[in-house]
Specification:
The protein has 692 residues and is mainly beta. It is 4% helix and 57% strand. The longest helix has 9 residues.
């Protein structure tokens, strides 16, 4: 298999792009395997899809990597902003502090950190996850059951932590923007002893902001520290800890009703929300981890990782239901409650990989085992039902805070996941390789939710097959197949948890490199079939609890992607996705997901003018729709344009101006539900970065 000598010729120093020479030094000294650069994206041997050390050309799936330069240049401070830039990925902002993600027609439910994932996390993000602790983000689109064990044929998002550097480096930044948003960061890294065998890194970030939404504001703090010790030249020990506090006030729970009681659509201002000044949603996430790895003389390595996570949430929420009368403004009822919750996770992973000789060729193999437990508790203090004041035109008026009873333990669930997997990368000829793998998984759940047992005991062995054929030094063809197994958290009308969804996923495409390896381009087609996938139906009678039914779903389509440098100063990146989603009867379903989407970004740097960089990004999607009171509500196709300009003020100081949603496009953040609220209008932020 051609090992992309063209890619390897790319200089690591290009990683910094226009962000300054210090950033390039940071990337070069990070402890990652074979880093090479495609434009703003860090392209490396990625183990995210198969667990094997394969280049992107050798990986029989679609993989996108966003590196530190793009994150910094476009001011992508949280996960929601970052994932919105990924080709084929949709961010479903259903509430201010609860977000879902979709790709290729299905929910993204697999998220990893350094390849270690929590596949039973419901596939949503509570609060905004800060990205200051991550060096890059990898997205493997399609089914990735080999490495995650469970999940939809959507995508797997892998966050790669920043690691200690061999040389001392330090940086800090301060930013100020629209809605009195302030952003502060600090990052210090380097050796802690004379020999450099012990190294450390600490990162801090704070975001404090009001909002375009009435009442809403957020204060977010991130603390991250990591130590690594080369005990011997072959033995390494690493330990780290991160904490994020996300304190949000004036939050919404659910969103705005979209039509009046007579079915006519309500024309809201972008600042409208169902929240109130007294609502809040505070989240606290603590993650500690330890790693021990050993490299044998024969080239094999073994690594063990233990991860402990504790999450606490405390929320006082307000939900609006019903539709206002167009004449009186009355008719919107309210329910509110206090909802504390605790989650504790323990995960242990061990993985061994290396190569072996057979029939005169070298081949790779990976073997892994992991086990995890999730223990969650949720309390509820539900107030008596009450009503919103009458609408004032299209303005919803926040009600007064009700009184709450004593909270009771409404849910106590324990999930246990155990799996073993293996894969082999076979060099069949100089041009043809194959990846063969399996994943064996067992999921056990005990406990109850609102009085109903959540018990389950499910297991599955799934195969994975992929092939890659090099047509020449620039172009490779690939194809892959994987079984699907997705344990589900949704319940039916009787509150019984739905059985796991099962299915099949197929993908084929072409990957290519151009302009002496500076430009990377791919095209792919895909098809996924899921049986029994949870689909929202409505509320359980006489309650406000949602229920679901299992629906057979088929999604298929094609994608194009490009990333790299047209010239040493001009970078491009992005992709286009077209797909169809049908139910078992052949009817269109999941109409809140756009059938076409386009993501593009570009920058141009003028070194002779203090590394002046000008750049822009555009996100376009086709129309989407939902229904409210039987009325179809459509969000027309729209495009959002972002611009940036950055320049070195001194050898150590760089200034950046980011304008987001430049043309002030008004659009809903999601139509996943029959309620919605508007996404952010135009905003501007100015940031100063200092490198010591």
């Amino acid at each position: 298999m051609l090992r992309s000598a063209l890619l390897a010729s790319a200089s690591i120093s290009l990683l910094g792009l226009a962000a300054g020479p210090a950033l390039a030094q940071t990337a070069a000294s990070d402890e990652v395997s074979e880093v090479v650069v495609m434009g703003k994206r860090v392209i490396r041997e990625s183990a995210g899809a198969t667990g094997l050390d394969l280049s992107l050309r050798e990986t029989p799936q679609s993989v996108t990597v966003i590196g530190a330069a793009q994150i910094k240049q476009f001011n992508l401070t949280d996960v929601n902003q970052l994932l919105a830039t990924l080709p084929g990925v949709n961010v479903e902002a259903v509430e201010t502090d609860r977000t879902y993600y979709t790709s290729r027609g299905f929910d993204i439910v697999n998220f990893q950190v350094d390849g270690v994932g929590q596949p039973l996390d419901w596939g949503l993000q509570a609060g905004a996850l800060d990205v200051a602790q991550y060096e890059r983000v990898e997205a493997v689109r399609g089914a990735n059951g080999l490495m995650t064990g469970t999940g939809n044929p959507s995508a797997t998002i892998n966050y790669i932590r920043k690691r200690p550097t061999e040389d001392f480096q330090a940086s800090a930044s301060a930013g100020y923007g629209t809605w009195d948003e302030t952003r502060l960061t600090a990052d210090v890294s380097g050796p802690l002893n004379d020999s450099g065998t012990v190294r450390g890194r600490v990162v801090y970030a704070n975001t404090d902001s009001d909002s375009y939404l009435n009442y809403y504001g957020v204060n977010r703090n991130l603390y991250y520290g990591i130590l690594t010790w080369d005990v011997t030249p072959k033995l390494n020990a690493t330990a780290g800890f991160s904490r994020q506090d996300n304190l949000a006030t004036g939050v919404n729970w659910g969103a705005l009703p979209l039509v009046y009681s007579d079915g006519t659509q309500i024309n809201y201002e972008s600042s409208e929300t169902t929240g109130a000044p007294w609502t809040y949603w505070d989240t606290h996430h603590d993650i500690g981890f330890g790693e021990l790895s050993y490299a044998f003389d024969n080239g094999w390595t073994i690594k063990g990782v233990y991860t402990h996570r504790e999450s606490e949430e405390d929320a006082k929420l307000l939900y609006a239901y019903g539709n206002p009368d167009p004449a009186t403004g009355l008719g919107v009822a309210a329910m509110s409650g206090e909802y504390p919750s605790d989650l504790e996770q323990n995960m242990f992973d061990v993985i061994a990989n290396g190569d072996f000789g057979l029939f005169g060729r070298r081949h790779q193999v990976v073997l892994g085992f992991n086990t995890s437990t999730n223990d969650s508790k949720k309390w509820s203090a539900f107030a008596d039902l009450f009503a919103y004041p009458a609408y004032q035109g299209a303005h919803i008026v926040a009600p007064a805070e009700p009184t709450y009873p004593e909270a009771y333990l409404a849910e106590e669930i324990e999930d246990r996941l155990t799996r073993a997997y293996g894969a082999v990368h076979l060099n069949l000829t100089d041009s043809l390789t194959a990846v063969l793998g399996f994943n064996a998984i067992e999921v056990k759940t005990t406990g109850y939710s609102y009085g109903v047992s959540q018990a389950r005991d499910e297991n599955k062995v799934s195969p994975y097959v992929g092939v890659v054929y090099d047509l020449n030094a620039n172009i490779s063809l690939y194809a892959s197949y994987s079984d699907l197994f997705t344990p589900q958290s949704e319940s039916d009308i009787n509150r019984n948890r739905l059985d796991a969804a099962e299915g099949r996923s197929y993908e084929a495409g072409v990957k290519s490199e151009w302009l002496d390896g500076r430009l990377y381009a791919t095209a792919s087609i895909f098809k996924s079939e899921q049986d029994g996938l949870a689909e929202y139906v409505g509320y359980i009678p006489d309650t406000f609890d949602s229920y679901y039914v299992g629906v057979d779903t088929v999604a298929q389509g094609y994608e194009f992607e490009v990333a790299g440098r047209i010239t040493p100063q001009w970078t491009v990146g992005g992709g286009f996705t077209d797909l169809s989603i049908e139910d078992g009867a052949g009817a269109d379903t999941r109409l809140y997901i756009p059938r076409q989407s386009l993501k593009l970004n570009t920058t141009y740097t003028l070194p002779q003018y203090n590394n002046l960089t000008l750049g822009g990004a555009v996100r376009w999607q086709s129309d989407i729709s939902t229904t409210d009171l039987g009325t179809t509500v459509t969000q027309d196709a729209y495009a959002v344009v972002d611009l940036l300009a950055a320049v070195d003020l001194t050898d150590h100081v760089r200034a950046t101006v980011n304008a987001k949603n430049l043309f002030d496009e008004a659009y809903y953040g999601s139509l996943m539900w029959s309620q919605a609220f508007y996404a952010p209008p135009r905003s501007v932020m100015v940031t100063l970065d200092y490198r010591f």
